[in-house]
Amino acid sequence: MVSPMKRISIAPQLRFRHDGNDLPLDKVLSLLTEVQTHGNLQAASQVLGQSYRGAWGHVKEVESLMGAPLLTMARGRGAVLTPLAQRLLWGQKRLQARLGPLLETMASELQTELDDLLLQETDQLRLFASHGLAVAALVDFAGRAGLPIDVSYRGSIEAIAALAKHECEVASFHVPIGALAEPVLDQYMPLLKGKSYRVADVASRRLGLLVARGNPLGIRTLADLPRTGARFANRERGSGTRIIYDLLLAQDGIDPTTVAGAENIEFTHAAVAAYIASGRADAGLAIEAAASQFGLDFIPILTERYCLMFPESGSESPHLQALLEILQSGEYRQAVHAIPGYSEGATGRVTPLSEAFPSLG
Fold first, then answer.
1. CB-based contact 198:351 (threshold 8 Å)
2. Which residues belong to CATH 3.40.190.10 in the chain?
3. What is the pLDDT of residue 159?
4. Regions in the chain scoring below 50 on pLDDT
5. What are phi and psi of 166, to 5 degrees?
6. C-alpha Rg value of the chain to the nearest Å
7. Which of 103, 157, 244, 324 sits in a 20 to 30 Å window from 23, CA-based?
8. Among candidates 192, 304, 290, which has minimal Cα distance to 247?
9. Domain 207-302, what fold?
10. pLDDT value at position 79?
11. Would you say domain 15-90 falls under CATH 1.10.8.420?
């Protein structure tokens, strides 16, 4: 087993600046999160290992700087977050959902540069991946096992193109199961046709419409978006989900220009969910796990395969073999099983590209 490595990480941070004061909001946001969970400041401070007096004092300090209350205290009813506090928490969630994968990619790139300068071992497994919870768990498992892996989160087409140009050793993509499989594979065809690749199944997962809890607009299908005037949170072009969205619209004869807000672009499923949960959009196309994460309703549309792909010529790489061992382990399969909307039925299966997707053979 490779020993765990020293790694660079980058994390987004909210700060409040006013009249020469520059206050990080991490501590108060942690307190507000626990107050929201437990309903009072006493329990929140205990969970975080702080004294009640210290927690109260910090909340009052931030309130003083911001000029508005964060908590409403009521005898016998504990503490309730004010609209300002709620908006700050949603801002933090959206920040993490939108920037988290990007910052993880930047951290990997910076780590490689630092390793080069420090003359450290840089024989890493480069993975270009479409962001998702199962692949994020796989990267986490690899990190804990000490496997040197350099992950860059990209859209499916960009990831496959990088593999073809030898910019990475492993790429990920996702394909619907059923009628839309061939139209989606047609998008990948120029990059994959006749390639000697192998495909490793990571998971299957449900994709559908995300809407606010209770579905106030009564949305059931994509056709309801123009009818209701629902504001849509879209994905970037080149992402697998955007390809599926465009195909679904064409399949149902829906003019894309009739969907309000479709120019609102987010780069991950979680970012789409956070955008809807914060009230800035009414619907989006994303995985069920993102709906669960942000307390949204989920309307299933299809199930898709999420896969890794690598050249036959590199299949004997020790790093790749170590990654596949993790993928096929019972512990990892249990982790996939625990993600809402994910299934581990085919997790770890490895087949030639021509067998996994005969039309690409």
1. yes
2. 121-202+308-338+345-360, 207-302
3. 93
4. 1-4
5. 60, 30
6. 23
7. 103
8. 304
9. D-Maltodextrin-Binding Protein; domain 2 (3.40.190)
10. 87
11. no
